[in-house]
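tool_call: predict_structure(chain=1)
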Amino acid sequence: MTNYSIMNTVHNFYMTSYAPKSNSPFDTHKKSELRSVYNSIVKLNKEAPLYIVDQSAATQEFAVGMKENARSLKNTIASLGGMEEEDLLNKKTAFSSDEDIATASFVGELDEGDEAPTVELAVDALAKPQVNMGRFLPDNEPVGLFPNTYSFDININDLNYEFQFKIREGDTNRDVQDRLARLINNSNIGLEASVNSSETDSGSSYLRIASEATGLKDGSPIQFTLSEDHSSKAAGAIGYLGIDYMTQGAANSQFSVNGEAYSTASNNFTIGKMYEVNLQGVGAEGSTTKIGLKTDIESLQENLTTLVRGYNDFLRVASEFTAEHPGSNRLVGEMSRLTRYYAEGLTGAGVNLNLDGSLEIDAKAFRDSVTGSEAADNLSAVKDFTQSLLRKTNEVSLNPMEYANKTIVAYKNPGKNFASPYITSAYSGMLFNSYC
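tool_result:
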C-alpha cells in the first residue's frame, strides 16, 4: 500500500469517527493558497516554545474534532457569499413555493441590476433506485443453511465485488440478515442494506438492498445484480435469503419547466445555471411549483440564520471537550469574548447573545434593523463580527494543538530561530499513530 493510500485510509477513519463528514467547494485551493497556509505554519512555529504533547486518544479526538469543526464553520461563512469582506453574507437565496415537491438553492451569478427569472416546475415522477427485497424469514428460527463460509458476487457500475461471510452453529435468520446488512453497508460500493420487519408478522423480517444511484443505466432499470455463478465459497445464500428478487427497477425523474418536458437520472439538477433543484415529491395533476429568488432582506435573514446556527454548533462542540481539555475552556472563552465585543452591534441587528454564549435571532428586530435609518451601521456591525469570526476559525484550523493538553519544555531565543519541526506536526503524527 502506498503512503498516499495509508494517509487516505487513516484520515477517513478519523473524519468518520471524530468529526462530521462534509464536502464543500471551499475545501479545494489554489497553489497560492496552499503556499500561504504553509508560510503561515512556518511563521507560527518559528518562535513557538517546545512542547511535550499529551498523546492520549482523547487528545487525538480533540485535535481532529476541533480542526474539522473550525473548518466546517469557515466553510459555512464562505458559503454565504464568499470570504472577501465585501462579499460576506451577500449570497442570494432561492425559494420554492412548495418544498414538499422541490427545494431550491441559487447557484448562478447576477450582475448589479439583473434579476433571476421565476420558473414553473411540474413534477410527474421522481427518479428511483433499484430495490431488491428478500424473503420473509422468522427472526428467531435457526438459519436453514449449514454452518460454513458462503460467498456471492455483486456487480455494480461494471465492477464485481465478492462478499464472504460465515454462518455458525446456532445462528438465527436475523443474525445472518444483520451480518449481511453490515457487510454490504461497510463496503461503500453504492448500495444500502437494511433489515426490515414484516408489517403483518412482527416475528419475521427481510433483507432489503437498494442502490444509492437512481435512474436508468444505459436504458436499463438494473443498477446491480447478485450472482453465485463464480462463488469461491459455499453457494446457496442468495436463494435462501431471496435477495436477488428485484421489487423495484431504477427509473428516471419526469418533470417539466415552464411547460417543457425533461427527464433526468437524478432528483438533483440545475435550471438555467441559476437554480439547483432537489425533487422531493410528485405534484397533483396540473399543479406547479414556483422556483425563484427571495428578496434581499429575506436572503440576508436566511444567511444570518445559517451563520448563527454554524456559530452555535461550533461552540457546542468545543464545550463538549471542556471536561478533559482545559484548553477547550480557553477556546470557548475566546469565542465568547469575541462575541461580547460585538454584542452591542449584533443586538442592534436583532442578534441577541444568550447567557450560555450562544446567539439567537429576533426575526422582527432584524427586519426593523435592516429597513430603518441605521440599516447601514447595523449591517456593518454584523459583517465586522463575521470577519473576526472567520479569522478565528482560520487560527483554530491552522493550529488546533494550541488548545490541546501540553507541557512547555523550553522557550526559543526570540528573533534568532530557523524553521524547525513545529507543534502542528503533532497533529499529522496523530493520524499515523499506530499505523506505521
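agent: Residues 1-11, 13-21, 432-436 have pLDDT under 50 and may be disordered. Proceeding to next step.
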